[in-house]
UniProtKB/TrEMBL annotation:
Coiled coil residues, start to end: none
Active site: 305
Biological source species: Bos mutus
Protein name, as recorded: Carboxypeptidase N catalytic chain
GO molecular function: metallocarboxypeptidase activity; zinc ion binding
Length: 459
């Protein structure tokens, strides 16, 4: 849909951000600098604080910053979740400056992107870990994992509530296939940074997301947690696809093929066909962020591993930016595909939390607080059903093309007792039922014993 030659950038070689690493104070200055340069299309906000009290800042781009416009999708980037994996942090600062400058230059592709999309950019989810990693770097202390964790020593990408065990159970035995409920005591089980992110992704109706890491070069898509038990003596774990596997593969490929070299497959001594991998088939991990996004919210998230060297030399940052720039933009544009629309009642009242089901894909999405919904889909013909408690379900057939998202609105009729005798709609309520005690997740007891490739360590 954005058919503009990818080389036609006006600010071609990067920007005034300059290609250097940014400590916390520097990063904050940069975010406000971009905001001051583009005040009408940006907003800086904080979603909470780290263990050491540093803000978790987000820079938002939109033609109406701070406002959700119905039918305009929300998308996010999260960088530097592992404090020592720093390229994503710098790329997101570059991207921020780039969006601002190109918008001011009236680059039509970027103007359209900003006008049609609400973009949230969080350069650092782990500012405390970053400071540790940066200080070690300055003293030339090498250590592969120095600064990875937060200030309490916790790996934030192993810190989200484990919902996979529930979904694997439900897939076999029936039960909700989306918006799985959090454990009652979830806040006491997670770190401040994780809690802030969970509250953030619950309060916006995000549709698409990427989480930027380092230590490999590959686009990694859910699930991250393996369904199969590992066979003793074998390092590889089983490919564990989501019901949206083909869509996730496409999203990952969009990034890898728009990236300078990710798609070539051979990087950092590893080979990944097309530069993509199912997370679990690479190495299984529990309590990761991307699986959580998919299982608890409407958001489809992938994890981007962007550099062999977790803390690249300053001299490499420009090349990395040029290698990632087009991919970062194209990925954002992917939020404009599939179907979207409003769910209303007969009096045109917006219906929040209506469930949108697609025949053949066992993963529903819901309408947001404004009654609008977004369902990413590959091109094809689908049977789509909207349901809401107290209303008759409505089913339509939709053909989705490769470009613009198809607008599919629903106007639901209140069900009358005669017209709608007690019926069970499969996969309807997302309040969900709770898993019986006996199948409490095993992984909750098990710490992360599963690590691939111990010689190199986790990405
Ligand atoms: Zn990482």
């Amino acid at each position: 849909m954005f058919g503009i030659n990818r080389r036609e950038w006006k600010t071609n070689q990067g920007s005034e951000v300059t290609f250097r690493h940014h400590r916390y104070d520097d990063l904050v200055r940069m975010l406000y600098k971009v905001h001051n340069e583009c005040p009408h299309i940006t907003r800086v906000y904080s979603i909470g604080r780290s263990v050491k009290g540093r803000h978790l800042y987000v820079l938002e781009f939109s033609d109406y910053p701070g406002i959700h416009e119905p039918l305009e999708p929300e998308v996010k980037y999260v960088g530097n979740m592992h404090g020592n994996e720093v390229l994503g942090r710098e790329l997101l600062l570059q991207l921020s400056e780039f969006l601002c400058e190109e918008f001011r230059n009236r680059n039509q592709r970027i103007v359209r992107l900003v006008e049609d999309t609400r973009i949230h950019i969080m350069p650092s989810m782990n500012p405390d870990g970053y400071e540790v990693a940066a200080a070690a770097q300055e003293r030339d202390i090498s250590g592969y994992l120095v600064g990875r964790n937060n200030a309490n020593g916790v790996d934030l990408n192993r810190n989200f509530p484990d919902l996979n065990t529930y979904i694997y159970y439900n897939e076999k035995n029936g039960g909700p296939n989306h918006h799985l409920p959090l454990p009652d005591n979830w806040k006491s089980q997670v770190e401040p940074e994780t809690q802030a992110v969970i509250q953030w992704i619950r309060s916006f109706n995000f549709v698409l997301s990427a989480n930027l890491h380092g230590g490999a070069v590959v686009a990694n898509y859910p699930y991250d947690k393996s369904l199969g038990h590992r066979v003793r003596g074998f390092r590889r774990t089983a490919n564990t696809p989501t019901p949206d596997d083909k869509l996730f593969q496409k999203l990952a490929k969009i990034y890898s093929y728009a990236h300078g070299w990710m798609h070539q497959g051979w990087n950092c001594g590893d080979y990944f066909p097309d530069g993509i991998t199912n997370g679990a088939s690479w190495y299984s991990l529990s309590k990761g962020m991307q699986d959580f996004n998919y299982l608890h919210t409407n958001c489809f998230e992938i994890t981007l591993e962007l550099s062999c060297d977790k803390f690249p030399l300053q001299g490499e940052l420009q090349r990395e930016w040029l290698g990632n720039r087009e991919a970062l933009i194209q990925f954002l544009e992917q939020v404009h595909q599939g179907i979207k629309g409003m769910v209303r009642d007969e009096n045109y009242n917006n219906l929040a939390d209506a469930v949108i089901s697609v025949g053949g894909i066992n993963h529903d999405v819901t309408s947001g607080a404004h009654g609008d919904y977004f369902r990413l889909l590959l091109p094809g013909t689908y049977t789509v059903t909207a349901t809401a408690p107290g209303f008759d379900p409505e089913t339509v057939s939709v053909t989705v093309g490769p470009a613009e998202p198809k607008l599919v609105n629903f106007q639901l009729k209140r069900s009358t007792p005669q017209a709608a005798p007690k019926r069970r709609i499969p996969n309807s309520g997302h309040r969900g039922r709770v898993l019986p005690k006996k199948v409490q997740p095993r992984a909750a007891r098990k710490k992360e014993t599963m690590m691939k490739q111990p010689q190199r360590g986790p990405a």
